[in-house]
Write a structure and sequence with these properties.
7 strands; disordered N terminus; binds fe (ii) ion; single chain; 3-stranded antiparallel sheet; globular; about 475 residues
């Protein structure tokens, strides 16, 4: 059989209340269950999604097929009418499990009983981050630096909403009553709620202004990318196909973060050069964000995102890998036996008050490895950012703090590590951490810059315009209409 013949492709059916390419029309029970969940989702969206935005017409892209070009469908949409749907990449009938104990067996089309509960937990934990980030970003529209940015914020929001749909489909279709209950609970938890918070700490932090938002989409959406990429390797084929399609959306979220921070740097460097100022206070007086403050935000968002990778050494992660539930990043491109039974991996930890490197079993160090893969990609992004001060002849460079810096989860939790990776005392930490992490004063200053700019083609003073508009349109295009 030729390779193309083995791929089963369902077109997306937009005539249905829930657009899908999973042939929902022929599974009445599932269809009814999801149609009952849909109004609850819309309630959740109106309660916790973008504030005061229901009547805006937003120039959004909507997926119309799962091909590479399937995203090229743009038009004005009122967000409550967005066509959230269930889209999986086509099934490859010949797909085999390619790591762990089941390597070589056909990928699973149903959930094996023995892995039901860990798989459900994996899906729920990932799924919970999707609505959480929409909730975290709810108020940002009120202070958008431009229409272009406002539109991009809403694009991310509707796509995170679709990611919620993607995980809810899996829960309803494959996990019976437990799955339906989990799908309900996904709409009930709230980011930052003391009684019923989102599952992961970073998703309970506030995204209170646009600098935090760009940092979040650069650092934290990228954690999403790495988690989704390792789930895209899963032996459970519907999960792999679902996450593969989600990954196509994630790229745009990280673009918003990377280009957003780059534009802030650009603007600050312009002012530094044009007005010949380097002093942070003087730069602030000119309404731009000094580079030292940018560094503190990098330190914060990078370190809280590292916590999302979990403990460096984890028997859970080892079990997930051995069972075939969750692979490594780019598992298929790694040249080893994909079972890791005798391999070692270098990790860093604190021993006798010193930062040391040691060899750990690769299987238990799966989380550390994924985190290191993530760090490499983040560093490449910082290198691109650093070309901006370089271009202006400004010696400042952003750097990533040590992986042990400001950690709450894993082997560095409860320890005090400087950005350079020195183990320090608690007193030392308390004396210096205000120079390393955003202070209340930093937040208050950034907040003070936030004002709503909605005139087409205009940008807030603290951020440069983007290099180009959306979908080949000019930067001054009316990306959001208020009538
Ligand atoms: Fe997402
Ligand atoms: Fe995302």
């Amino acid at each position: 059989m030729s390779e193309t013949a083995e791929i089963t492709q369902q077109p997306i059916d937009y005539s249905q209340r829930i657009p899908n390419n999973v042939d929902l029309a022929n599974d009445r029970t599932l269809q009814r269950a999801l149609e009952r969940w849909q109004p609850a989702f819309l309630n959740w969206w109106s309660e916790t999604g973008p504030a005061n935005a229901a009547n805006l017409q937003v120039y959004l892209r909507t997926a119309v097929s799962v091909d590479r070009d399937g995203w090229a469908n743009f038009g004005y949409v009122r967000m409550p009418e967005y066509r959230w749907g269930i889209f999986l990449v086509p099934r490859d009938e010949s797909r085999k499990i390619h790591f762990g104990d089941h390597k070589g067996e056909p990928a699973w089309q149903e959930v094996p009983g023995e892995y039901r509960s860990p798989l459900r937990r994996i899906i729920v934990t990932q799924g919970d981050t999707e609505p959480a980030s929409v909730e975290q970003q709810r108020q940002l529209g009120a202070t958008c630096p431009s229409l272009y940015d406002l539109r991009n914020l809403f694009q991310v929001n509707v796509e995170e909403g679709r990611h919620l749909w993607a995980t809810v489909y899996l829960l309803h279709r494959y996990f019976g009553r437990d799955g339906r209950e989990e799908a309900e609970a996904l709409l009930q938890r709230r980011s930052g709620d003391a009684n019923n918070p989102r599952i992961l700490t970073a998703f309970n932090e506030k995204t209170s202004h646009w600098l935090a938002y760009y940092m979040f989409t650069f650092f934290t959406d990228r954690d999403g990318k790495f988690q989704l990429a390792s789930l895209a390797e899963s032996a459970f084929d519907p999960l792999a196909r679902t996450t593969r399609f989600m990954l196509t959306e994630e790229a745009h979220h990280m673009f918003i973060g990377e280009s957003g921070v780059a534009r802030v740097l650009q603007r600050t460097c312009e002012v530094m050069c044009e007005q010949n100022v380097t002093d942070p206070g003087q730069l602030r007086a000119r309404g731009v964000i000094d580079l030292e403050t940018m560094q503190r935000f990098v330190n914060f968002h990078y370190s809280v995102t590292l916590d999302l990778f979990g403990s460096e050494l984890s028997s859970n992660a080892a079990n997930y890998f051995t069972a075939g539930l969750k692979g490594r990043y780019s598992e298929g491109n790694i040249n080893d036996d994909h079972s890791l039974s005798n391999d070692a991996y270098t990790i860093q930890e604190i021993s006798n008050g010193e930062m040391v490197k040691r060899q750990a079993p690769a299987l238990t160090a799966i989380n550390a490895r994924l985190r290191d893969d993530y760090t490499r990609e983040v560093q490449a992004g910082l290198d691109r950012w650093n070309r901006i001060p370089e271009k202006f002849g400004i010696p400042f460079r952003l750097t990533l703090p040590h992986v042990g810096f400001h950690r709450k989860i894993g082997s560095f939790a409860g320890r005090h590590v400087s950005p350079e990776g020195r183990v320090i005392s608690k007193e030392n930490w308390e004396r210096q951490s205000a120079a390393w992490l955003p202070t209340d004063n930093d937040h208050a200053f950034v907040d003070s810059l936030m004002g709503r700019v909605i005139e087409p083609g205009k940008f807030a003073n603290w951020i440069a315009p983007p290099a180009r508009g959306i979908n080949h349109l000019p930067i001054e295009f009316e990306y959001v209409r208020f009538d």
